[in-house]
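hey so u asked for the seq, here:
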Amino acid sequence: MSLKPIPADRLIKALAKVGFKPVRRRGSHLLMKNDEGKTIVIPVHKGEVLGRGLLLKIIREAGLTREEFLRLLRR
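ran it, structure tokens below
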């Protein structure tokens, strides 16, 4: 399965499965943090999807591989 653009809510649910929790929301950006202190900013725009490039950047920031992330989406 290849990485395809997805809505922000699917990304947020997948990151929550590996311990990221919403810390705050400011405008259209959600800040998520895990227990190790890693923070990720996710743009949340209704009706829009996150492109492959941004998804790859967020996946790397979360410390995940592409395969791990795709497994999280399937669960």
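Residues 6-74 form a domain with the Metal Transport, Frataxin; Chain A fold (CATH 3.30.920.30). The two ends are 14 Å apart (CA to CA).
lmk if thats what u needed
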